[in-house]
Write a structure and sequence with these properties.
The complex is a heterodimer of chains A (about 450) and B (about 240).
Chain A (H helix, E strand, L loop, with lengths): L27 H10 L4 E6 L11 E7 L2 E8 L7 H5 L7 H5 L7 H16 L7 H29 L3 H22 L8 E2 L2 E2 L7 H23 L3 H7 L7 H6 L5 H5 L6 H4 L20 H28 L18 E4 L2 E4 L1 H10 L1 H13 L6 E9 L2 E9 L5 E7 L1 H5 L3 H5 L5 H10 L3 H5 L1
Antiparallel strand pairs in A: 1-2, 2-3, 4-5, 6-7, 8-9, 9-10
Helix pairs in contact in A: 4-5, 5-6, 5-12, 5-17, 6-7, 7-12, 13-14
Chain B lengths: L26 E6 L15 E5 L12 H12 L3 H4 E7 L2 E6 L4 H10 L7 E2 L3 E4 L8 E9 L4 E9 L5 E3 L9 H11 L2 E3 L29 E3 L2 E3 L10
Parallel strand pairs in B: 4-8, 9-10
Antiparallel strand pairs in B: 1-2, 3-4, 5-7, 6-7, 7-8, 11-12
Classes of the chains: A alpha+beta (about 450), B alpha+beta (about 240).
């Protein structure tokens, strides 16, 4: 490559004589005095990469005229872990444990869209049992609630309202209680697998779901009461970080930000998957297109998700005992998981069978687990409505047991491009509000 | 698993075409051997098997695909044959293979025409096919129409020696970071991009990590006395 690449993080100011200040906190007044002495109004501030409001590690470079932001640049890549490259070296099933770690606040979304892609490549989309799809929808909606609660809670915390955060996290813990009860893990679950889900629910799952719904609802009410009529909260968020529909379309924004600009686009309604068309729920929208409306939308979406969760509980009861994995033994994971005295593992019945009764079953188990299944060559694109927007995956198979290419379109990666338009011309204090309203998670942005 | 599907890997069952009846659009990989191990004495070691993408589809394409291709061909006029290299319908998805010099025109029509109206480009995903001589690097653009609720895929192939594709950030500003990412990971140069800097890797990084010839890296790890090689050095079951 002969051309010289421009630097994303290069100097803002070409002038080599420009004075530089390094702030370590607490010495602001000295810096301000020095800047005043040099009669400088224009200051370039580096925010991050370690900063509580950056949802991970995000570097924001701000050019300021006094208190007004004149230029914003986002520097990402600090959390790049090469997940997509790693997935090319693991089997299709193992890939689930990798992609779940991208946007770690909404783990299930990546698992779901990835498995949807594999099933499309295999041509088994319609063979996935109903109960597996119900469990997927349940998990996705609990994840959506959890992700929105983190967005609202940390958003409040960033503006100094710690109670908002603690309340939101208490409610989020209730979603984790159900997720842990069913999948065995709070986050990074690797629960949704190609062809179905990893295991069926324990006996008390439905009762637990019904128990947490009112608890979560109560905390959501509390969050609404704490925030929505609070004059300080309204003063900080109303009319801040505006992005109208034209701006959203130009920047490819999806999710709550797009819906706050008035377009009711939700992949669950537009291109239903996992049977979403059979659930009764609404897609809340607003036309205010500001940070405040997005908080309201996220709260309303949580209520809608709770409605879906309640419907899932009814359906789980009705489908008790039905399979949660495709019938094809060449794809389905051979064993159900269970909790033994030494932790979670393959069910004892299965171990007894392969170790004591059937050599063929042992071979089959070994081949499927170590080698994996083959996926016919080709490529697919599948997309779901993640909590943060349209989450897409592009999968290419070379006919082998590993992906040739797995590329995720994380909504946060795309939406973070809007940071400049959301902040430029505004107050420096509103940058934090803008970051909170985008609600990206840098694990997903950088992958 | 439906009966008609071919699990062994060439993926040509979907198009209804027999192998050999069509030209190769993309040679994904050339597999050698049977079990992944080198030097096995069974004779399977000498197997050589090319794996191809599903081939071009004959009309009618089905669903809304014919209409979209018709409108696009009409808009492109006499450039249509040169611009659209192949049309592939596979697994219910439409892929248009577009010649790179015509990509901006195709993208503009896809976005602007009222019968097409693909308002959003969902990014660009690079893919590296080292075996596909002269077309090693592919850029895949998923397009989303919210108006008509449709999705299609535009694919552009270039060679490693001349990895230039015109940028479509002027038409789809949302692709700014996506093109930077694909430059960063695959070394595809998007001509006309306002600031084609690396985005995930550090500015001074050498190489493009998502290419197939770029090693994954990693070190052997000792576990219970045995040495486990790094993932890219383990035995590959293919």
């Amino acid at each position: 490559m002969t051309q010289t690449a421009p630097h994303a993080t290069g100097a803002f100011v070409e002038d080599p004589d420009a004075p530089e200040y390094s702030a370590y906190g607490g010495d602001w007044s000295e810096i301000a005095d020095e800047a005043a002495r040099l009669a400088q109004q224009r200051i370039v501030v580096n925010m991050g990469p370690q900063h509580p409001s950056t949802h991970g590690v995000l570097r924001v470079m701000l050019e300021l005229e006094g208190e007004v932001v004149t230029e914003t640049r986002a520097g990402i890549g600090y959390l790049h872990t090469g997940i997509e490259k790693n997935m090319e070296y693991r089997t299709w099933t193992q890939g689930v444990t990798f992609c779940t770690r991208m946007d770690y606040v909404a783990s299930m979304s990546q698992e779901a869209v990835y498995c949807m892609g594999i099933e499309k490549l295999l041509g088994i989309t319609d063979d996935v049992p109903e109960r597996a799809n119900i469990l997927r929808v349940l998990m996705l909606e609990l994840t959506r609630i959890g992700s929105h609660l983190v967005a609202i809670g940390t958003g409040g915390n960033e503006m100094g309202a710690t109670t908002v955060m603690t309340t939101a996290f208490v409610a989020r813990e209730d979603t984790f209680r159900v997720i842990e009860n069913i999948s065995g893990l709070r986050t990074n679950n690797a629960y949704i697998r190609p062809g179905g889900v990893a295991q069926d629910t324990p006996e008390d799952a439905v009762a637990l779901i019904r128990k947490v719904i009112p608890q979560i609802k109560q905390k959501l009410d509390e969050l609404a009461d704490l925030q929505l009529e609070n004059p300080i909260f309204k003063g900080r968020l109303q009319g801040v970080a505006n992005l109208d529909l034209a701006g959203c379309m130009a920047l490819g924004i999806t999710g709550p930000i797009l819906r706050s600009a008035g377009l009711p686009y939700d992949v669950r309604k537009a291109d239903p998957y996992f049977g979403y068309e059979t659930y009764d729920f609404q897609v809340p929208t607003s036309t205010d297109a500001d940070a405040y409306s997005r908080v309201v939308l996220r709260l309303e979406e949580c209520y809608e998700s709770l409605k879906i969760v309640a419907q899932c509980a009814d359906r789980l009861e009705a489908t008790e005992g039905q399979p949660v994995m495709v019938a094809d033994k060449k794809i389905a994971w051979p064993a159900q998981l269970s909790v033994g005295s030494d932790g979670q593992g393959n069910s004892l019945d299965h171990i007894r069978h392969i170790m004591g009764e059937s050599m063929e079953s042992l071979i089959h188990h070994f081949k499927l687990v170590t080698e994996g299944f083959k996926v016919p060559a080709g490529q697919v694109y599948s997309a779901i409505e993640g909590p943060k927007g349209l989450l897409g995956v592009h999968l290419v198979s070379d006919g082998g047991t590993k992906p040739w290419r797995a590329h995720f379109r994380d909504p946060g990666f795309n939406n973070l491009q809007a940071l400049g338009i959301l902040t430029e011309g505004g107050q420096v204090a509103d940058v934090v509000v803008a970051i909170a309203t985008i609600d990206m998670v840098l694990g997903g942005v950088d992958r | 698993m439906s009966e008609s599907q071919d699990l062994t890997g060439t993926g040509d069952a979907q198009g209804g075409l027999q192998p050999g009846e069509r030209e190769t659009i993309t040679l994904i990989n050339v597999r050698e051997g049977m079990f992944g191990a080198q030097g096995d004495t069974s004779g399977y070691d000498l197997l050589v098997k090319p794996v191809e993408m599903p081939g071009a589809t004959e009309r009618p394409y089905g669903e809304w695909f014919d209409g979209v291709v018709d409108v696009l061909e009409e808009l492109l006029g006499e450039d249509a044959d040169a611009a659209i290299e192949h049309v592939v319908v596979d697994r219910g998805e439409l892929t248009l293979y577009v010649a790179r010099e015509h990509l901006p025109a195709v993208a503009r029509h896809l976005r602007d025409d009222q019968d097409l109206r693909f308002e959003m480009c969902l990014g660009v995903s690079g893919v590296h096919y080292p075996a596909d001589a002269g077309r090693e690097l592919h850029a895949v653009y998923p397009m989303q129409s919210i108006t008509h609720n449709r999705r299609l895929r535009v694919e552009v192939a270039v060679s490693e020696q001349d990895p230039h594709i015109p940028s479509i950030t002027g038409i789809y500003p949302m692709n700014n970071w996506h093109e930077r990412e694909t430059w960063d990971f695959f070394g595809i140069v998007f001509d006309g991009h306002p600031s084609l800097a690396r985005i995930e890797m550090p500015d001074d990084w050498v190489g493009h990590p998502q290419r197939k010839d770029y090693p994954l890296g990693g070190i052997p790890v000792e576990y219970k006395g045995a040495e486990i090689p790094s993932p890219d050095n383990r035995r590959q079951y293919r």
